[in-house]
Design brief:
Order of helices and strands: HHEEEEHEEEE
Mean pLDDT: 86
Shape: globular
Largest sheet: 8 strands, antiparallel
Strand order of the largest sheet: 1-2-3-4-8-7-6-5
Number of strands: 8
Distance between the termini: 53 Å
Low-confidence stretches: 4-24
Helix content: 10-25%
Radius of gyration: 20 Å
Amino acid sequence: MSIRRSLRCAATVAALLFTCHGTVFAAPTVTDLPIKLGDSVEDVKRALGTALDPEQMDQSIPNLPKKKQLRLKTKGIWVFFEKDRVTTYRVDAPFKGSVGGVHIGDDVVTLTKMLGNPVKTGTFGTKTTYTYYFDDITTTDFVLINDVVETVFFIK
């Protein structure tokens, strides 16, 4: 094999590996959820098409920053704010969107098929959690009951 042909072959393999690497580690698409951590209250209201204002949350420790919540029960979206910025949000039934192709109600086989193995698993009461890091800011926890996705949390 000539040196020129070897170099071309090596370049092709390198390009293929680079392309695959980018695909494997790309953050999954979240559908029907046009908000993100750090968004303002007004950004969230506009994105979700609601006139509802967030409500103050009861807190057992008085010195903690005041938190607010905006819950859209008919959309299955619950957003939590600190200092009028999104710090956590969650989706549960009847949320129609998906996280990387995984929907509320999908089983654990579909979850790991679509997103791979989690970085860690744990328990939350009688439920199982699968944790993924899709970027350096957001921790995404899938909460399963009886091996079925019940809730997805996006946490800063």
